[in-house]
Model the fold of this input.
Amino acid sequence: MNYLDLIQILDSSIRLATPLLFACLAGLFSERAGVFDIGLEGKILISAFFSAAVAALTGSVWLGLLAGIASSMVFSMIHGLASITFRGDQLISGVAINFLAAGMTVLIAQDWFSQGGRTPQLSGGARFSPIELPFAEALSGVPFIGPLYADALSGHTILVYVGLLTVPLTWYVLFRTRFGLRLRAVGENPGAVDTAGVSVVRLRYAAVAICGVLCGLSGSFLATGLAASFTQNMSAGRGYIALAALIFAKWRPWYALGACLLFGLLQAISNRYSSIDLVLFEIPNAFVLALPYILTVVILAGFVGKAVPPRAGGQPYVKER
Amino acid sequence: MDKLPKWADVALIPLINLILALIVSGLVVALIGQDPFEALAIMVNGAVGSTYGWGYTLFYATNFIFTGLAVAIAFHARLFNIGGEGQAQLGSLGVALVCLMVPWPHWLIALPVAILGGGLFGAAWAAIPAYLQATRGSHIVITTIMFNFIASALLVYLLVSALKAPGMAPESARFVEGSHLPTAREVLGAIGIDFARTPMNVSFIVALLACWGLWLLLWRTRLGYEIRAFGHSDKAAVYAGINPVRITMITMLISGALAGLMAINAVMGEQERLLQDNVLGAGFVGIAVALMGRSHPVGVFIAAVLFGALYQGGAELEFETSIPREMIVVIQALVILFTGALDGMVRSPLEKAFLRFRRQPDKPGVPAE
Done:
């Protein structure tokens, strides 16, 4: 493997990490507010479908993006209704949302396009096109750093950069604003927040709504940036990998970036090589793909640093009995 | 005093939830421009209108009984085993190994060993998440999800390497003739009843025995009492001298074993070889089945047959109309949503209604609890 191969792998890691990153930050907002969300997968999928479908019908990727976010928001609100208003089981609600998305997308796709549960191929204005970062051309001649900047970092679609910028934004909102403080407090001790006269329900709905927007971006990027159409079950477990990344990152924004880049790198490696030949033995491709999940279990087991979830996570808040 | 009479809790609420799920499903069918009543008629007829339909319905139901019981026993200990899918995958590996290793002379000898193999492998796959939950506090939902993916990667790997049969397809060799389980057609044909050719086989009897066994375990043994006590209040259970690590481990081992047993129906009974995915989502259907069946073996059985009918009816629906098979997934999602997550939406108004209805004949002036 030479330097150019490495650049290409880094380039595709960043691209593959982006949907994970959006979903991971989505989960971060939701879980920090005390609402577990294993429905990330479903929200990515429904958004992927509606972005691709609307982009295909209107020819505008931006309208597609809006539709994707809106559909993901609707699912978020179902989750909020079940887990905040009716105090149902958040995990079960998440499972239901994943199935709902898996079924509805194919059902509607078949009804609208009759192409066996997929959307038509997107092209031109119906897709996000790559943008060059400033000076990419000029710097590409510089040895070592030049190709890294011009080929790995530059030339992605706008959503990749939005994703990267969402990380500091998330950090700022959660750790430097009053809203963020309250949001984190509601995930640790909702009773205290309620006593202070702040609505637990409203805060949790806000968190779930932000989660919906970010999942919408994730799905939209998947269908209109990474791929060029919606295909059945195209999220392919990304929601769960994002969940794994969230645990791996111990519910912190910057760590989340690191975890998503790592998991993106693993995907990029397994896409490129059918198996990795070390001198003594061979690592099968399946193992590289399973590595995010194995790493997460190891982290969860607390052998390498302990991941402690928000304390009130998963419990519906009951104001009075 | 309970807010609801028992019959309302056991029968009325699940029924209302189911009807709500079906109404929304009907709306979905109507939205994609089909007639919901016609669709329902096709599904019912396809599922129970012939011995062919019944055979497939009960074949699917057998899978769902095993995975439903797996989720149900975990629910009793207030554990959410979402890993039925992975445990069933490993179970299929166990069953396949048993069937491939030994040239079995007769299925009556092969079946008990396959049950052991499938159960053992399924239980082993549940053991690590259970241990981590019990001793290190890692959330079992997350670890079992991760183990689902690890299981599928493991099977994909094994079927392109060690277990791969010669040929292009990533599948194992066919099992020996002696491990073939008699199908419903063969069994019923022997006593002179004509039954269509379907994959339904003697595993259905094993599933019924599993229902009965689980009921016996949960309500007639000390261990079952401990599991239920732990589920109701872990603190009280610990105070009463029940060891939480032991209960968590045992419950999850049984749960994993039950999920693994699904393989005797799907792998040994139908496929007769190991494929990359033998489970096809049945592990997740188990969640819906356990929720609808209120985690009781009888309820699980009824719900499993209902879901079996749904799967078979859905297949017919795709055959006869332009509604894709994924309609089943939508209905399944709505059932999980209404019986699981939105249960409170139906329950609390119903509780209020029952309280008001009941208060008048009670002693006036004393507020009902």
User: Anything to note?
Assistant: Residues 19-126+144-243 of chain A form one domain.
